[in-house]
Design a protein that fits this description.
The protein is α+β, with helices and mostly antiparallel strands. It is built from two helices and five strands. It has a five-stranded mixed barrel with strand order 1-2-5-3-4.
Length: 98
C-alpha cells in the first residue's frame, strides 16, 4: 500500500493524501481521484510525494492512473471550459477553474 500526497494543480502548495494499491507511483505522475462534488466524476491530480507510512487519518483511494490519450481532462472542468464564452478565457486565463 502506498500513501500518496497529491496536488490538484502542479503549482499548489497544499497536498491531499490518498491511498494506492497498484503499481508504484512517482512524483510527477498524474492520477485520478473522486470528485467530491459529483459522485460519478473524477479529477486529475499530480503526485507530489509517495510513502509507505500510513497517516493518522483515513485516506480515500486513487481511482487509477490518468491517461491523457484515452481520457479527457477532468470531466466537469472540461465541460465547463467548453461551455464558457471565449472572452472569459481571455479574462481569467486558460487555467481558471469553475
Amino acid at each position: 500500500m502506498q500513501y500518496v500526497k497529491c496536488k490538484f494543480r502542479p503549482s499548489d502548495t497544499r497536498t491531499y493524501t490518498y491511498q494506492w494499491d497498484g503499481e508504484p507511483l512517482q512524483k510527477g505522475d498524474v492520477v485520478k481521484v473522486a470528485d467530491n462534488r459529483d459522485p460519478t466524476a473524477w479529477k486529475r491530480v499530480w503526485v507530489d510525494e509517495v510513502t509507505s507510512e500510513a497517516p493518522s487519518f483515513a485516506c480515500k483511494p486513487i481511482l487509477g492512473i490518468y491517461n491523457p490519450d484515452a481520457e479527457p481532462a477532468d470531466l466537469p472542468a472540461a465541460a465547463a471550459k467548453a461551455d464558457r464564452p471565449d472572452w472569459i478565457g481571455d479574462l481569467l486565463g486558460d487555467e481558471a477553474e469553475f
